[in-house]
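Following up on my earlier message about FE2/S2 (inorganic) cluster. Here are the inputs again, as you asked, copied directly from the submission form:
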Amino acid sequence: MYSEKVMEAFKNPQNVGEIENPDGIGTVGNEKCGDIMQISLRIENDVIVDAKFKTFGCAAAIATSSTATQMVIGMTIEEALKLTNKRVIEVLGGLPTQKIHCSVLAEEAIKKAIEDYMSKKK
Ligand code: FES
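Thanks, got it. Here's what our run produced:
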């Protein structure tokens, strides 16, 4: 059902946890399944230098969040805002159709964390 890359990211997830005193934090719920995702970011000069996630979500949510957090580290906030769940799914070699909604959690939580950072900056 899952690609090898998804299984690998699920079995050995990266960036699990929470950044202390994060520059931005975003928590979102999935309307389809009710699962929850939190992403915290460390941002320096508008560049994401660290990202961590915590989730009450399934294997697909864990794999996509692990991959998405790895991808955004080193990106500017503008670049990270353009990261889509589709791109994360491509990197992971695809997801079963009924699991696509799980990958939206990471994209939305990253966006929310960046919005939080921008609102604090003002
Ligand atoms: Fe809820 Fe996958 S079933 S995140």
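One observation from looking it over: The mean pLDDT is 96. Hope that helps, and feel free to reply on this thread.
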